[in-house]
């Protein structure tokens, strides 16, 4: 089963900016401008590898996710992998 973890903290510089968050990815030199739920996903993942279901459970502990869609979360995680902000294990 596929697991995901946030990119190592040393490779990311995360700066909240009002409703948005800037994430500088040192490895690529790209600054990403993101909105919720990206910062929350990265924080929930941390350096621990979690499956989609594990991450969804962790996010549900912190947020009201009564109608959460695991497939939508998997798609978002794959987008973050492509951006270099999340690693697939």
Record field, number of beta strands: 5
- The first-to-last residue Cα distance is 9 Å
What structural class should be given to the helix and strand makeup? Answer: alpha+beta
According to CATH, the fold-level topology is Outer Surface Protein A, domain 3
Largest sheet: 3 strands, antiparallel
Please explain how this structure is put together.
The chain has a single domain, classed as Outer Surface Protein A, domain 3, CATH 3.90.930. The model has no long low-confidence stretch (mean pLDDT 94). The longest helix has 14 residues. It has a three-stranded antiparallel beta sheet with strand order 2-3-4, with no helix packed on it. A two-stranded antiparallel sheet has the order 1-5. By secondary structure, the protein is of the alpha+beta class. The chain is globular, with a radius of gyration of 12 Å.
